[in-house]
């Protein structure tokens, strides 16, 4: 059985051929959630001119003098034509270009009435106050959003500031999800509701993929039909369930029939041990996720999303380091990826009832990585992956539980 690190290396080595480079150009307004296929550089200095940051007077200092002769008004969007001599000032509004050699005094620090020819300031200001200088935020040519970034509202805003009106993005990968199992969506005492389908719909939509979804019962013909339909059009076929040791675990035996070769089956991780990855000569991938809902959540983040990244310019989920809220040791035998929440004081691993415990997982913010034998003291950093599409702190409710 592969270690987690070996599985990660095998995923990184996958080659999806020409599918990796499909790009389209779309308006910024429609680009949220898409992955950028080019660097966006700013086409001018930012700010583009020395910009007043307060409403008041731009004064040209003259020794200790506190009275200035008013030469005019400059509002945002206009420019003061001409130069100020020492002892002169212009009325200026926030966002307007400050004339050369001036310092801006806020209106509250002046004595002034409309129609007056001079303005008095209540102190002798330092040179160059309350001005955002041309180029102090960025210089023309600086890259502000890099290729491979999933575009969020802040990126779109800075891209617009950089002068972009559209962006080259990777085309949406097509992902076919086939949930499996007679019990799923059925009726009767042993039936269960489909939680994996909605989970993958949401995760993949947040990642900018086109999702098609089907369900197949544990019947060879039905599963083969669903998978063949999926294989015809998808970049990645994802199944949930049916990859372990049960008599109805039919997924592995289907690969040959679809023209896929196994890259790996089973990884030394919890949850998600029976995960299966396969590849086809035309660049399509097959990922069999174990059926337990938390296994789906974990293996989607650990294996499916890095695989999807091959179609998205190498995009990958970003792990961060977060201090543990209290001492913690992992004495299990598998590399554990445990739901955990970010709280005041640090990262708190969930107390869960195993990989079927979706409720505990939804009441968390992401996954903490706990290698075999790992021991943490409170404050030690741990690797943490926020759930895709989730806002930290907006957790589902964990009901009271009896121990
Ligand atoms: N003898 C062994 N048994 C099991 C092993 C093993 O190594 N030896 N591995 C266990 C591990 S670990 C996992 S994980 C599970 C995964 O098994 P499968 O991928 O074959 O999944 P299923 O058996 O089909 O389902 C597991 C569980 O999840 C429920 N499920 C399935 N689909 C959905 C859905 N769409 N929504 C909600 N819940 C779903 C299903 O009813 C089962 O309860 O195998 C262990 N067994
Ligand atoms: O590896 Mo399985 O997902 O623990 O139950």
Description:
This protein is of the alpha+beta class and 403 residues long. The chain has four domains: 4-22 and 172-311, Molybdenum Cofactor Biosythetic Enzyme, Chain A (3-Layer(aba) Sandwich); 27-43 and 145-169, Molybdopterin biosynthesis moea protein, domain 2 (Alpha-Beta Complex), CATH 3.90.105.10; 51-132, Beta Complex (Molybdopterin biosynthesis moeA protein, domain 3); 320-402, Beta-clip. Helices cover 18% and strands 28% of the residues. The protein has helices at residues 4-12, 153-161, 196-206, 220-233, 251-258, 293-308, 358-362; strands at residues 23-27, 40-41, 51-52, 56-59, 67-74, 88-92, 103-106, 110-111, 118-121, 131-132, 143-145, 166-170, 174-180, 210-216, 236-240, 261-265, 269-270, 276-279, 285-289, 320-323, 328-329, 335-343, 346-349, 366-370, 375-376, 381-386. It starts with a helix and ends in a 17-residue tail after the last strand. The chain binds ligand LQZAQKY5 and molybdate ion. Molybdate ion binds at residues 270-273, 290, 292, 295, 355. Residues 179, 181, 183-184, 192, 194-197, 240-246, 249, 271, 273-274, 290-293, 295, 355-356 line the site of ligand LQZAQKY5. Catalyzes the insertion of molybdate into adenylated molybdopterin with the concomitant release of AMP.
List keywords for this structure.
Molybdenum Cofactor Biosythetic Enzyme, Chain A; about 400 residues; alpha+beta; Molybdopterin biosynthesis moeA protein, domain 3; 7 helices
Compact summary:
It contains 7 helices and 26 strands.
